[in-house]
Amino acid sequence: MAEHKTSLDPDDWAALRAQGHRMLDDMFDYLEQLRERPVWQPAPAEVRARFQAPLPRAGSDIAGLHRAFMEDVLPYAVGNAHPGFFGWVHGAGTPVGMLAEMLAAGLNANVGGRDQIPVEVERQVTRWMAELFRFPAGAGGIFVTGTSMANMIAVLVARRRVLGLEVRDAGLARLGHGLVAYTSAAAHDCIAQAMDLTGIGRAALRLVPLDDDYRMDTVALEQAIAADLRAGLRPFFVAATAGTVDTAAIDPLARVAAIAQANGLWFHVDGAFGAMAMLAPELAPLLDGIERADSIAFDFHKWAQVPYDAGFVLVRDGELHRQTFAAAPRYLKREPRGMAGGSPWPCDFGPDLSRSFRALKTWFTLQAYGADRMGAAIAGTCELARYLAGEVGRRPAFELLAPVALNIVCFRYKVAGQDVDDFNAALVADLQEAGIAAPSLTTLRGKVAIRVAIVNHRSERRDIDALLTGLEELAARRLRG
């Protein structure tokens, strides 16, 4: 009786190798020729309909699947690799990162634990980040999907510190009465989500008002803490933001650190993209005080240009970090030798046991380009933001709506005789659908703003000029009716 074949490897490795080279070349061509493409284009109904097919029971030719990707997927992505993409804070990726992701996928390592070098790669990146942020040698760190998860881990570690190890068994119902936390009114909603998901609740998060520069008002922070203490509540956590989502404002980190220390609060920094300004010597002073944080959350897949996804959380007290998550069920028993050695494992520092090798593409990116070149690319996006702000000030049809702290510029087109907010919202949609450039929208103090987030290392002044010219031409067309 013939043995039934169960392997999913190809019968013809040479044919697969040739197909793989074609796929790799297509992606290199895509990245090299990005400027010739629209930033974004809506997918036609007939393309969307192809993704309504039922579950396939038989296999398909990989060349046909590649063709479907090139025709039906690649042209209709959000376009954040394009130098004209300015909507939201999305990194652009690099060819180096793409290649590293291919290597990681081929290796297919589960980096939850065990005695293996992929774990050492992650540990090395953790040590590099401790060096960058001037954290002690015993700092803990772990790769996660993104800053939303990293912020939640920080809340959990802070909760463990204030309530003790017992909270892992007893829970908040018995131990968590009166916990309150603080962040600015401009903070990302994932801070509130972290309060929700950790069981503390959104109502326990105080949103501190902003100063004139859209930063946390530290006088208001002190007043909020004092009021909660008088009410018999238990302040335990404050999250400052390094690079707010709307304007890229940086909260007064050193002052927030001092307030947290004086009141016994855990000082966390949500540095989703802004923390990576530490790589640029001319920008690093803007983050003064970040080195005093108890934890920092950030994404390598934003300003550091690592392919999605590659979030990270760094915790000053590595042992406290480990105690927050470590468990030892029988199937994860550690041994002094063999594959079950090498403890502690990454799964001891976060909720995931099955984990992809995110560290490799980050390790490749940092090694291939070096911190100095990456910092120069980050500083370059801030220089472009200043150029854009200058052009907005020079062109009478536009008005700037917020100070330019880093790489985000918020402005709008001035128009008389109709609703200016609706006009600017429609103008941004027109620009996106034209494929010229892709800014986004936000609302600042009741005004709809065109928000240009310059994160892409490929963006140049000509892309800024195309954005402004496109807005002017499309506005003129709208005004003509």
Automatic annotation (TrEMBL):
Keywords in alphabetical order, please: Decarboxylase, Lyase, Pyridoxal phosphate
User: Which sequence ranges form a coiled-coil region, renumbered to this chain?
Assistant: none
Would the keyword Lyase turn up in this protein's UniProt record?
yes
Similarity comment = Belongs to the group II decarboxylase family.
Q: At which residues is N6-(pyridoxal phosphate)lysine found? A: 302
**Top-level taxon of the source organism:** Bacteria
Q: One GO BP annotation here? A: carboxylic acid metabolic process
Q: Report the protein name in the record.
A: Glutamate/tyrosine decarboxylase-like PLP-dependent enzyme
Q: For this protein, what is any one GO molecular function term? A: carboxy-lyase activity
Which source organism? Pseudoduganella umbonata
| Cofactor(s) listed | pyridoxal 5'-phosphate
Mind telling me which InterPro entries this protein's record contains? Aromatic_deC, PyrdxlP-dep_de-COase, PyrdxlP-dep_Trfase, PyrdxlP-dep_Trfase_major, PyrdxlP-dep_Trfase_small
